[in-house]
Amino acid sequence: MKVQNGKITGGYEFKQFLGQPESGLVVQEAPEYLFVPLCSASLGIKPLVRAGDKVKSGQIVWQDNDSISSPVHSPVNGVVKSVQKMNYLDDEILSLKIESASSEGWESVPGSGSEWNKLGKDEIEKILYLSGTSALGAEGIPTRFRTAVISPEEVKHIIVHYTFAEVYNPDISLFLDNGGARKFTEGLAVLAKIMDQAEIHIAVGINSSTWFQVIENALPEDLSVEYHRVKPKYPQNHDSVLLKTILNLDLPTSYSGMNRGVVIIGIQDVCQVYDAVVTGKPLVDRIIALGGPGFKDHSHRQVKIGTTVAAIATNNLSFDDPEDLRFINNSVLTGSTLSPESPIGRNSEVLVALEEKRGQELMFFARPGFGKDSYSNTFAAKFLPFTRKVSTNLNGEVRACLSCGFCQNVCPGGILPNILFPYVERKMLDETVIQYGIFKCIDCNLCSYVCPSKIPVASHLKEGKKELLSEAFVSEKDFINAYNLIGLGEATDEESE
Amino acid sequence: MSDNSNFIIETSPQIKQSDSTKSVMWVVSLCLLPAGVWGVWIFGPRVITVILASVISAVAAEALMGYLAKRNTLMDGSAVLTGLLISYNMPPAIPLYIPVVASFFAIFVVKWTFGGLGGNFMNPALAGRVFVFFSWTGHMTRWTMPDALSGIDTVTTATPLGFLKSGLLDYTGTAVSPVSFLVETGYPHSTLDSGITAWFSNNLGLDFANGYVDMFLGNIPGSLGEVSVFLLLIGSIYLFARKIITWDIPVSYLLSFGILIWIFGGTRYTGGTYFSGDVVFHIFTGGIILGAVYMATDMVTSPLTGKGRIIFGIGLGFLTFLIRVYGSFPEGVSLAIILMNIFVPMINQYTKPKRFGIQIKRDTK
User: Which of A397-406, A482-491, B184-193 has the lowest mean pLDDT?
Assistant: First the structure.
């Protein structure tokens, strides 16, 4: 077994944060009402069921063959109450309100079974599509049913990652212990069969690389895998950083690994692929890690998709008033805020609850700050046994840029955010900004995180990129030509016709 | 209560680290404090009034400008730090109006005419110091003997560097190094210095001339905050550990300065040769440690990239060496730093990372 070491430039290691998810799994009963996210409201495709219809667990309730999508299933047995619009993850979506009667069992996906090896590629792809598991991963799993922007033949690499780069990370042992590794590797074999041109890479954070041996032992003989030990530094889990550290491929901003023929997927996703193909289980639930000081109990929850945040948080908060808390989906650095009524979606992995701290602490600048994460303390904190508590407080006021260079030190794109953001602020957007590498920004938001002057650097950069694209200083074509991108040509041609 | 919304973040990233401009300024001021306390200890309680005069006037100037610009910048702590650094660059017996003028010049002219904190191209404290240095050169070069040495000369004296500079003009003796020159011409040293030097000689077999220990601990005449190399270094260790300052400027500054002194420092003496300069003497005297650690590393006025900062440091080392050894002033740190501050935009221009990203090919008709 050969293990390669991935090198990330810049980045930041979140260490010793209070409220880490703990191992241990609690199966959460389905609440009375579930809100199943269907699709973006602008897409406007109606579900296959109407209010008042009875649905069974695992029954397909939404499907669209024209757009890039995968079917959605009812997670429980129950009755459809309504189809409603709701705000979810910074988008307006259509969702299905289902009254749950029981959450027992599910309708098995036709064609599945342990003899999957004898099935043809088309049959396996059909199982993935009908089970909804083709929606997993950063950008979906490519099948012949338009579940991703590229086709399975175009996939050159599959990266399975578990990098421990975020502030709160799920526990890897839940998926690999107790025979889990067997399921995981068989799931990998399924993916390898449908994407037969692809090399498989497994990237795991340095502190968990002992799992490589566990995976290697469970690996089927005809499957070869490359192992990569990566630093548990944020944003190692971002597409462009994974591509750079593992495959040495460049990826411009706002494009996904898929555009260079790389499927990026998590370990839980691969396990769910196994479940779908071997046991016929459609995508009806997810294992969610609970992180952040807002939760009392941090063990993982197996929840039905569509379970609301409020249902998960009931009796598990360290604050009496949920108004004092903020719930965040997946990542505190890039994730969106969830309201208590928001559901858990198919790509949720971590639910974070942080204290909503308003106002300023008295003389906060004069405190040594051992209980908080500070950029300048990272070196010294290695030797100190303090855990750190985070809240949504800004920890200071917005002030002028000092050119302290914190942002350029952590920038994984190797650009100088402190030079670029004033250009955007003053609306001086032209080719100079492009040449200084604004499109190397991968929206990891680290610059905003470390800025001691509390300037929203990352938002400025994001806005600048948007302006540049809308003012046609750069076009999609420039990126496609410069980086050899795939999965985009079709879309742009259609637009121009 | 509605103002509270200023203190929480509404979009991702949903959390922020706890360093702030304020805490950075606070930590630097804190690290400077021991050296100031030492100044009070050896030059007498009058030093407190000098420190207070500069800090209070700097804060008052900042408050006035903030009021005129309708920006509340008083609390960011940068004015306190500027005032503190100005006072550390003053002789202990300075008339109080001089640090006040220096503070007002620093805040009004150097900082606010360029837009306040973050906009100035020159270190305000040093520019203020240089301004008053050329305006009241007499007062700015009248030094007081520390209490430990004052049995010998009570009123005024010269710093070791000033003594050396004027002494070497018509010197015909045999000394070939600054310390042997000082010893020969009877420059005083404390009993503590003799004691420690003798201890090193007897117990560790390390022989060095009298005077080094005084210079290291700060038992020499000089600006009130610059004399104690020892306490300034202690503060700087904390700054390094906290990563408030990075190694590149201090190291490249001291290294290039040291190398140049080693090569050329000896040639100023009758019969002196190349490669015989006394590096330790030059690093322990004058304001080079205060300058290299606390003033050249000022985030606002130093280059952006690591490479740029090393060039900046080498430039500082060269200029300081040039002024000290061949110039007419005994001391060149403040002039070197503000001169290099002027070059910072140019250094930035040439050391920005390679241009990369997409190559846009356009038809130019």
Answer: A482-491
* Residues within 8 A of B (CB atoms), A 159-178 only: 167
Contact yes or no for A31/A307 (Cβ under 8 A): yes
Instruction: Establish if A477 belongs to a structural domain.
Output: no
A229 domain residue, yes or no: no
Q: Which of chain B's residues have a Cβ under 8 Å away from the Cβ of A17?
A: none
A55 vs A282: CA distance, rounded Å:
14
CATH code of the domain containing A43: 2.40.50
Identify which has the larger pLDDT, B139 or B188. B139
* In chain B, residues 63-102 whose CB comes closer than 8 Å to chain A: 73, 76-77
* Tokens read off for A12: 């930041």
Band of pLDDT at residue B6, cut at 50, 70 and 90? low
In chain B, where the domains are located: 21-140, 159-222+244-349
Number of folded domains that form chain A: 1
Strand, coil or helix: A210: coil
What value does the CA radius of gyration of chain A take, rounded to a whole number of Å? 23
Does the pLDDT value for residue B144 go beyond 60?
yes
Which residues 6+ apart lie within 8 Å of A417 measured at CB? A407, A408, A411, A441, A447, A457, A458, A461
For B241, name the nearest residue in chain A, comparing CA atoms only: A380
CA distance B221 to chain A (A): 33
Interface of A with B in 353-372 (CB under 8 A): 354, 356-360, 364-366, 369, 372
- CA pair distance B130, A283, nearest whole angstrom: 72
DSSP letter string, A258-306: GGGTEEEEEHHHHHHHHIIIII---S-EEEEEEESTTBS--EEEEEETT
Does residue A364 form part of some domain? no
Higher-confidence residue of B190 and A192: namely A192
SS3 of chain B: helix, strand, coil, percent, to 5: 60, 0, 35
Q: What is the pLDDT of residues B222-250, one digit of tens each?
A: 999 999 999 999 999 999 988 889 999 99
Interface of A with B in 222-281 (CB under 8 A): 252
Q: Is B351 on the interface with A (CB under 8 A)?
A: no
Structural domain of A55? 30-102
Does the CB of A16 have a partner CB in chain B at under 8 Å?
no
Q: Name chain A contacts of B119, Cβ cutoff 8 Å.
A: 400
Interchain proximity B4–A390, CB inside 8 Å: no
Cβ-nearest to A380 among B11, B18, B241: B241
> What's the whole-model pTM score?
0.89
Q: How many angstroms away from the CA of B344 is the closest CA of chain A?
A: 12
pLDDT of residue A483: 81
Cβ–Cβ contact B134 with A under 8 A: no
CA-CA distance, A237 to A233, in Å (whole number)? 8
pLDDT digits (tens, 9 = 90+) for A323-373: 788 999 989 999 989 988 899 998 899 999 998 877 667 666 666 667 788
Please say if the pLDDT value at position B329 is more than 90: no
> Looking at the partner chain, which of B4, B21, B246 has a beta carbon nearest the beta carbon of A453?
B21
- Name B8's bridge partners: A393
Contact B119 A333 (CB under 8 A): no
DSSP B182-206: HHHTT----HHHHHHHHHIIIII--
Residue A13 domain-assigned? no
For residue B363, what pLDDT is reported?
45
User: Which helix (H) or strand (E) segment is A337 a member of?
Assistant: strand A337-338
